[in-house]
Every structure is written in structure tokens, then in C-alpha cells.
């Protein structure tokens, strides 16, 4: 039988504690732990959720890895074509982590309407395009369908639609420059069949999704030529390693670039989230430790008579210290249980109802996304318990200074 644990459990269940001096102190300590755990759960869920949502949006427009020519082109417009007759297309079988590959091309243009005109990047896609990435961003109409014949259907952003006065069913004219400035630009008419809003202004104010065949015809490419390939992977955490493997597998005339490199400024900014999460966790663990240390000191001082009696009965200092550490463990567990419940409730409400909104110009999303990383939350719980118990060993040293004779006489 674990005698210290038995005594600690009886002390925790004692009703007399509610009217004692330590009652309010213990309630404050439990509340502090619960609030700290709530803050840690929410910060982890919101920080990781925002990171995942932003990288999903970047991948939706660019894929995880882009394969293109070494043309030193920084304008994001396709210049030199790549043949689709590659060993890695239409399936990149050499690398199992590559789940999808699609051929695309881009061309700069200007949309002109009776109300306004806007410079855009026309992204040409084909039948292999991964449309399910755009399902959640569609706010009106439907997604285009590109199969065999050239289609004039396009997907337009809500930002461009509002500025140009367009809606689902509208037709508009786009002008594309030719290779020679002396000749008239290409003129193409398109139909808006869908409107999307990704919340990512850099993409929404530029991209129009249309049929790849238009770019192939304007650039005088054959049907088996594209501007670049976009790859999607199953494990984003290994994206850098997978990108290097892709580079080794493709011909030497082609280059493979991950979104970690092409959008490095965004991922460097998102890396600050990890630091902020660690800072919040560290601060909250310190708060928990300080509150439990104070609570334990009060418990020891309040139970001075009990300490004296146990010593008089022959109990050693470590035996008595374990009694109070076990008691503190019960209180920590209660606080963590309440904090986790409140944290999961807050995350659930945000996930289903989107109560907290963000400025999309600053955070690239309208509603704060959340993601429940269960292993990390469990690890934080264990870390909190471990640090608190480790810190509590110090105040429990006070027990060694209590004389059994004086304790019983004083009481």
C-alpha cells in the first residue's frame, strides 16, 4: 500500500479544507492552472491552424513543388515550354510521397470592361488540375470544366469581380501581349462561371484560372507542352527533403523549387508563430509552478500539526514530503482537467462557428483557423505536470525544518 498517496487522497477529499485558510489559495491555484492550460491549448490550436491554412492556400495556387526550366524568369509568367513527355508525368512513381502532378502555364494580360481595367495573370490549367483545392474558396457559381475542346470558362476572384463589375455569367475581354510589340495583342473573350475568395490578396488580385489551351495557342505551343509542372506531396514536414529527391529525379535541364523557397518570406513569418507558442507555453508553465508552490507552502504551514504527528510516529522527511507532493499532484490534475475541457470547448466553438475573425490583409484569412494537435497538447500537459512537481520539491523542503515537539506543542 502506498501510504503517502493514501494520506494525500484523504486530505484532498477532506471537507474541512473548504473552510480553512488554504481553501481560497487552493482555488486560486487551480484556477490559475486551468486558465494557463486554456491559453496553451488555444495558442497551439490557433497557431498551428493558421500555419496549415496559409500553406494550404499557397499550395492551392502553386503546388508544393514546381518543376520549370532554368530560364531565370522572375515574373511568374511562362516563357519556355516543357514537354509533357517526361518519365515523371502523369505519375511521379519514383517518389511515393508525390501524390499528384499537373501541367500548367501562366501568361500576363489585361482585362478591360466598360467600368475599369485590371492587370492579371492568366493561369492555364488542364484536365489534370487538382480542383478540390478550390472547393472551399468558391463563393459563387461553379468550377470550370476543361476536357477536350478549348473552353472559355474561367474562375475569377471576388476581388477582381468587384473591381471590374463582373459576376457569374458575365463575359469580359482580355488582351495578351505578343512577342513582338509592333503587332496587335491577342484578344480573348471569357465567361465567368465561378468566383472564388481565398483571402490571400497576393493571389486574389492577380490570378484568373482558365483553359491551358488558350496559352498554348497564343504561345504557339503544341498540345503536349506546358509552362511548368506543379507537384503535391503527402508529407509537408518533409517537403525540403522531398524537393531534393524530385530535383535528383528530373532531367538536368529542369529545376525543382519548393514553396518553402519560392515563398520564403511567408514561411519565415509563419516560423514566428512557433516562437510565440513556445513563449506562451513557457510563461504559462511558470505561472502554474509559482501558484502551486505558494499553495503547497500554505498547505504545509496549515498542516504543521499533522507533520509533527507523523514525525512523532516515525515517518521520515521524504515520506511526509511525498504526502504533500501527491496532494499537489491531485490539485494540478484537477486544474489541468478543467483547463483542457475549456480549451477544447473554445477550439470546438471556433472550428464550427468561426467566432473570432481576423484581418485578411494581415493574416491572409478571414476567420481564425484552428487545428487540434493532440500529441502536442498531451506533451504540454505532461510538461506542465513534470515542471510543477519538480519545482514543488523545493518548497516541500520546509518539512525538514519542522520539529515534531514544537509542532505538536504549538498546535
Give a structural overview:
This protein has helices spanning 3-13, 22-62, 158-164, 201-204, 212-218, 239-249, 259-262, 264-302, 304-312, 317-353, 360-363, 374-392, 404-410, and strands spanning 65-69, 82-83, 98-112, 117-125, 138-141, 153-157, 171-176, 186-196, 207-211, 225-226, 228-233, 254-258. It has 411 residues and is of the alpha+beta class. Strand 3 and strand 4 form a beta hairpin. Helix 1 (3-13) packs across helix 10 (317-353), helix 2 (22-62) runs antiparallel to helix 12 (374-392) and helix 10 (317-353) runs antiparallel to helix 12. It starts with a helix and ends with a helix.
In short:
The protein is an alpha+beta fold. The protein is built from 13 helices and twelve strands. The model has no long low-confidence stretch (mean pLDDT 88).
The biggest beta sheet reads: 10 strands, mixed
Count of distinct strands? 12
Structural class: alpha+beta
- Count the helices. How many? 13
Strands, helices and their partners?
Layout: H1 3-13, H2 22-62, E1 65-69, E2 82-83, E3 98-112, E4 117-125, E5 138-141, E6 153-157, H3 158-164, E7 171-176, E8 186-196, H4 201-204, E9 207-211, H5 212-218, E10 225-226, E11 228-233, H6 239-249, E12 254-258, H7 259-262, H8 264-302, H9 304-312, H10 317-353, H11 360-363, H12 374-392, H13 404-410
Parallel strand pairs: 4-9, 6-8
Antiparallel strand pairs: 1-11, 1-12, 2-10, 3-4, 3-7, 3-11, 5-8, 7-8
Helix pairs in contact: 1-10, 2-8, 2-10, 2-12, 8-10, 8-12, 9-13, 10-12
Amino acid at each position: 500500500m502506498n501510504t503517502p498517496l493514501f494520506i494525500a487522497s484523504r486530505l484532498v477529499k477532506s471537507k474541512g479544507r473548504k473552510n480553512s485558510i488554504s481553501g481560497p489559495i487552493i482555488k486560486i491555484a487551480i484556477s490559475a492552472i486551468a486558465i494557463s492550460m486554456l491559453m496553451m491549448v488555444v495558442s497551439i490550436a490557433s497557431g498551428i491552424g493558421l500555419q496549415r491554412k496559409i500553406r494550404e492556400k499557397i499550395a492551392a495556387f502553386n503546388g508544393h513543388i514546381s518543376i520549370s526550366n532554368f530560364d531565370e524568369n522572375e515574373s511568374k509568367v511562362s516563357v519556355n515550354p516543357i514537354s509533357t513527355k517526361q518519365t515523371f508525368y502523369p505519375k511521379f512513381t519514383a517518389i511515393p510521397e508525390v501524390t499528384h502532378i499537373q501541367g500548367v502555364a501562366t501568361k500576363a494580360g489585361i482585362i478591360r470592361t466598360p467600368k475599369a481595367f485590371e492587370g492579371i495573370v492568366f493561369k492555364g490549367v488542364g484536365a489534370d488540375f487538382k480542383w478540390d483545392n478550390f472547393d472551399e474558396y468558391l463563393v459563387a457559381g461553379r468550377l470550370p470544366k476543361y476536357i477536350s475542346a478549348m473552353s472559355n470558362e474561367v474562375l475569377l476572384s471576388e476581388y477582381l469581380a468587384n473591381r471590374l463589375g463582373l459576376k457569374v455569367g458575365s463575359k469580359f475581354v482580355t488582351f495578351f501581349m505578343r512577342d513582338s510589340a509592333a503587332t496587335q495583342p491577342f484578344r480573348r473573350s471569357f465567361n465567368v462561371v465561378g468566383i472564388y475568395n481565398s483571402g490571400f490578396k497576393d493571389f486574389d488580385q492577380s490570378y484568373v484560372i482558365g483553359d491551358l489551351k488558350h496559352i498554348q495557342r497564343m504561345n504557339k505551343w503544341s498540345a503536349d507542352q506546358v509552362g511548368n509542372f506543379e507537384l503535391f506531396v503527402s508529407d509537408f514536414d518533409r517537403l525540403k527533403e522531398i524537393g531534393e529527391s524530385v530535383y535528383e529525379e528530373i532531367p538536368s535541364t529542369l529545376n525543382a523549387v519548393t514553396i518553402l523557397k519560392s515563398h520564403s518570406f511567408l514561411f519565415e513569418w509563419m516560423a514566428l508563430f512557433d516562437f510565440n507558442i513556445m513563449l506562451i507555453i513557457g510563461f504559462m508553465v511558470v505561472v502554474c509552478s509559482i501558484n502551486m508552490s505558494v499553495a503547497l507552502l500554505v498547505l504545509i504551514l496549515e498542516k504543521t500539526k499533522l507533520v509533527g504527528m507523523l514525525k512523532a510516529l516515525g515517518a521520515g522527511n521524504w515520506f511526509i514530503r511525498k504526502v504533500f507532493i501527491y496532494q499537489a499532484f491531485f490539485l494540478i490534475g484537477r486544474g489541468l482537467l478543467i483547463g483542457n475541457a475549456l480549451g477544447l470547448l473554445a477550439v470546438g466553438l471556433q472550428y464550427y462557428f468561426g467566432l473570432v475573425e481576423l484581418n485578411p490583409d494581415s493574416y491572409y484569412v478571414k476567420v481564425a483557423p484552428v487545428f487540434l494537435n493532440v500529441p502536442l497538447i498531451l506533451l504540454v500537459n505532461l510538461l506542465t505536470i513534470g515542471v510543477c512537481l519538480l519545482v514543488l520539491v523545493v518548497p516541500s523542503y520546509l518539512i525538514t525544518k519542522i520539529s515534531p515537539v514544537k509542532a505538536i506543542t504549538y498546535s
